[in-house]
Each structure stands twice: as C-alpha cells, then as structure tokens.
Amino acid sequence: MTILPNSDSLVFRETTDPEVIKYTHFQNGNNWKGELSLEEYVQREAVLGKSEIGQKGKSTETIKRFPEGHEWVGLKYFILENLEVNSEKVTDRIVSSCEILGRLGSCVYPGSKVEPCLVATIGGVYTSPENRGKGYARQMIEALNDHLDGVRDAPNSPDLIKNMVVILYSEVGEYYSNMGFKSEHVPLHIVTQLDEIEKRYCHQGTIEGRELGFGGYEELVALQDKAFSRNLEKVRKLNPYKFIFTVSADIDLYKWFAHRDLFIMKKTNRMQKDLKFGFALSDNSHIIWHHNWSGDSLIIVKVFMEEGKPDAQLTLCKLITMAVKETKKTGLKSLVFWDQEIEIKQFPELQKELLEMEHESNVYAKNSSLSAFRPPKGFGVDNVIWDNNTKFCWF
Ligand SMILES: CC(C)(COP(=O)(O)OP(=O)(O)OC[C@H]1O[C@@H](n2cnc3c(N)ncnc32)[C@H](O)[C@@H]1OP(=O)(O)O)[C@@H](O)C(=O)NCCC(=O)NCCS
C-alpha cells in the first residue's frame, strides 16, 4: 500500500478481493462491454481472470522455471482509494483502477545474451465519470510506476523481475506520454473487399494442412518462440547498444484470445459450430486469428513462416487465403492485420492488390490502440526496441 506523495487521502494498492475486482469490472464495463450486457462483461472478465494466462504465475511449470518472480506472472488488480470519502466500504472509496497482465518475455542488453524478462502490460485504466479530470488516473499510473520500479530494483529481485519492461495499449492517444511512456504507432491494414481479394490474390488450388482449434498446437508456438530468440540476436547485431525485448510466444496467450472470442460469440448469438482459430500448412507455417465479433472483423493475431524460405510470397498467400475463407464463413465483414505482423512492403503482390482494391484509409490505417513502453532503468526511449509489437501481445 502506498499513500501518495502530496496527498493525505489518496492510497494506491493491489487488491486480491474478488468482490472489489468484480466492482471495478462493473465500473469499467460501462466503457468496454461492447455488445455484452454489463453482467456478461463482468462474467467475461472473470473467465479471463481464471484463464491459463491470467493464472500462469501459479502453474507448476512457471513456479519450477521461476521459483522467484513467478508471482508476477498473470493478472493483478490495482485501485486508487480516496480516504476522504466517508464510507466503510472500500468500493465507495475507489476513484480509479487498473490491471496488469504479467507475461514472460525475452530481452537483450548490450553485450549480453538473451535473458528472460517480465513484460508487465497495463490495462483497464479507468476513472468513473464523476471523478474524471482530477488527476486520479495520472496519480495512479505514477504510483504504479513507482511500485514496479521498487519491485524491480529491490536488492534480491530475480533476473526475471530485474529485466522488467512495462508496456500498454492506449485508447486515449498520448495521455501516457507524460508518465514516462513512449508511443509506437503500428498501422493496420483492413481488407474489406473479400470477394476481390479472393479473385485477385488468394490461392486458387487446394491448400494442404490442418485447422487449429482452441489449443493443441504447442509445437507450432515453440517454433515461433525459437524464431523470436533468433530475431532478437539479429536485431541486436544491427543495434548493439540498444535494449531489445519481445513478449514470448505462448499458447496460453492465444487461448486468452480464444476465450474472449468464444464468450462473445455465445453471448451475442453468433454461434458457429467447432470454431477454428487458425491454420497450419504442411511445412508448419501457420496463421492464428481471432474473431472480433463486436467489430465484425477477423483479426490476424500471428503469422509464422520460417525465415529465408524461397517461397515466402506463396506461403503468405496460402495463409491469407485461409483467413479470408474463415472471415467469409463466419459472416464477418473484414480481415484486419497489424503491419508489424505482415509488413506489406516485404510482400509486393499483397501490397499492390491492397493499394488497388482498398480505399486509402484502409491501408496503413490508424490503429486506435496506440502501443507504448516505459524504458527500463538506464535506457532512454530512443535506446529501446520492442520486437514483435503486434496483435498477439495486445491486452
Ligand atoms: C482516460 C481516463 C482513465 C482518465 O482518467 P482521469 O482520472 O480523468 O485522468 P486525469 O485526471 O489524470 O487526466 C485527465 C486527462 O485525461 C485525458 N483524456 C481523457 N480522456 C481522453 C481521451 N479519450 N483521449 C485523450 N485524452 C484523454 C485528457 O487530457 C484529460 O484532460 P482534461 O481533464 O483537461 O480534459 C478516464 O477518462 C476514463 O476512465 N476513460 C474511460 C476508459 C478509458 O478510455 N481508459 C483508458 C484506456 S487506455
């Protein structure tokens, strides 16, 4: 618990009380429930809280791998209380709240090898309407920064925690830049002309491979993770004096998207039998997606192709073909991907078709989720590289 400097009445602390957590979801659901009712939204957040990634720090595997520091992996909830509010009930005193999803990542410092790091992702930053504009959210994030710095810099903190990086996805533009965060805009590509892309770009022949369900493709995720480590080394060679980090590829992360997806599908009566979440070609190249029912789009979460394969253009074409098929099959209206996931300038055929088919506002479109990171100790914002900053690590 921290009493904020310059205030006798504001207290920042973590909460593990399920009733308090539920209350914060009832509050912030007003902003994020989308097509769900408030009750359904609160239920969904409870499902995600109990999901594999939400509880990852408590898994035997994580505890074994990180006997110290595992408790920072998974979801944590924080509140800012105003003690001036004359009430016995904690929930009456809450003025702002937020969450952190702690995920495993990898990083490299100048001159050292790849090391594990905790990527603490801030989400759910919320102040109730009557309390807005009084500096509460800013003070809460500043207190959270101090709290995380304290944990990171404690004398006995394990390497996982010493290497902590903090990231977030802002829905309120540059709001966080005054709190030490550096924004990084990753543009989107939005394919709305599904019939056209099928005709002009997609693969016309049979595509051999297998559909990906809710889980059961751990070996493919392991390939992603190896490629991430190789890429960190590669980026380091080009940037020997920078701190470079990535969120690790993790099946539990993809399950988190699938949980959201299935929950909203059921609650909004968009039932599909045996929903699929991706496709793998026979050479293990694969694509993972999530159905954004509220936005009527299929979002590509990850594309994996072994580096240096001579037929990368064709492989991508096949993977996108499967995503277009899924978009149409599930009645969604567009296919969306982040440019860091598929850098279209590296795929001239795709780029050409997109530029010809789509309205200019759909290619390199503004991403309403603005990613931002807080540089680790000893590094300025210009000396940090966030590798693989794409939808898969969004929270
Ligand atoms: C964003 C939010 C958390 C700010 O809470 P707060 O306690 O009022 O924040 P502060 O008092 O520290 O700062 C207020 C400033 O936030 C900024 N801000 C608020 N909403 C904003 C938006 N949609 N876009 C850009 N800036 C915004 C403004 O600069 C505002 O300044 P103003 O009061 O002069 O207009 C609050 O408006 C909220 O809960 N919004 C709905 C949920 C949300 O969007 N959360 C952010 C998710 S990343």
Gist?
The chain has 395 residues and is α+β, with helices and mostly antiparallel strands. It contains eleven helices and 16 strands. InterPro entries: Acyl_CoA_acyltransferase, GNAT_LYC1-like, LAT.
Notable characteristics:
395 residues; alpha+beta; Aminopeptidase; ten-stranded mixed β-sheet; six-stranded mixed β-sheet; 11 helices; 33% helix; binds coenzyme A; Acyl_CoA_acyltransferase; GNAT_LYC1-like
Structural account:
The protein is globular, with a radius of gyration of 21 Å. The mean pLDDT is 96. The protein is 33% helix and 25% strand. It has two domains: 2-185 and 370-393, Aminopeptidase, CATH 3.40.630.30; 188-362, Aminopeptidase (3-Layer(aba) Sandwich), CATH 3.40.630. Strands 1, 2, 3, 4, 5, 6, 7, 10, 15 and 16 form a ten-stranded mixed β-sheet that branches. The relative contact order is 0.14. By secondary structure, it is of the alpha+beta class. It binds coenzyme A (COA).
Beta content comes to 25-35%
Query: In DSSP terms, counting alpha (H) and pi (I) runs of 4 or more, how many helices?
Result: 11
Tell me the structural class.
Answer: alpha+beta
The H-and-E topology, N to C, reads as EEHHHEHEEHHEEEHEHEHEEEHEHEE
Question: Regarding CATH, which class of the largest domain?
Answer: Alpha Beta
Low-confidence stretches: none
Any idea what the radius of gyration is? 21 Å
CATH topology of the largest domain, which one? Aminopeptidase
The CATH architecture classification of the largest domain is: 3-Layer(aba) Sandwich
Pfam families: GNAT_LYC1-like
Domain LYC1 C-terminal: 218-395
Protein name: LYC1 C-terminal domain-containing protein
Organism: Zygotorulaspora mrakii
